[in-house]
Amino acid sequence: MILIIVTIAIIVSFIILAYRAFISRIMKEKNVQHEAEVLHQKKLALENIKAQEEERKRIAVMIHDDIGNRLNILSLWLNNLDTKGDELIKKNIHSQMSSLVDAARSISHSLYPVNLESVGLVLYAEELIANLSHKINISLQVMPGYEKKDIFVEVQLYRIIQEFTTNVIKHSTATDLWIYIKDYRQNMAVVISDNGQGFEYEEVKKGMGIKNIESRIKSMNAVHKWKKSFLNKGSRLIIKIPKHHEFPNQNSTN
């Protein structure tokens, strides 16, 4: 009888251990499958963002280099045009040409930051801040040791800053906005915050502004957090971008 009980106990223990091992394997496979799906979604976001940026860049460069230059040449011709003393006509034409040049530059800039590759994120962000200084006070703090990133990351960060700032100006009563950038050994941290009325994330997460920001964050294989903001306390976005933001090979994850 004792031998039978011991045998049954061993069999039951074996069954329990085998069941636990089976469940553990199933859970592990599900986790691997989930991680692969998340990685796939991130890669799709990256490809989509890259395709959009390439098309934006093509149009922006065309406007900036072709149309913009042609308008500048026409403006120079107008300056040398003999209008037989009719300075009013000349002045009006010159004014319209200047407006067209500014409009072409503005459209090009909004489509793609054409000069960012040459001047870098920091200087380009400072130019954005200067252009918006009449609407809101923006403070940019870049900690010592910041290293220039590859063009894709810097364009995405610039777009995020631009989108966040635009949303704050349009939908918030904020008077101040702060941008903090710091390089760490393994990642880069970017914090953007304002002193507006804040928002409830669940209520606005489907908006195009939030979607665009989060899509760009995902394309950099980065993580982020919208700090829970209480009304009238402003909002804060915290982003951590890995130094090596490239996605691992899909085959290595399966």
Automatic annotation (TrEMBL):
Pfam families: HATPase_c. Its EC number is 2.7.13.3. It is an enzyme of class 2 (transferase). Gene3D superfamilies: 1.20.5.1930, Histidine kinase-like ATPase, C-terminal domain. SUPFAM superfamilies: ATPase domain of HSP90 chaperone/DNA topoisomerase II/histidine kinase (SSF55874). One of its GO terms (molecular function) is protein histidine kinase activity. The chain crosses the membrane at residues 6-23. The keyword Transmembrane applies. Residues 154-243 form the Histidine kinase/HSP90-like ATPase domain. InterPro entries: HATPase_C_sf, HATPase_dom, Sensor_HK_TwoCompSys. It catalyses: ATP + protein L-histidine = ADP + protein N-phospho-L-histidine. Keywords: Kinase, Membrane, Transferase, Transmembrane, Transmembrane helix, Two-component regulatory system. GO terms for biological process: phosphorelay signal transduction system. This is histidine kinase. The gene is nreB_2.
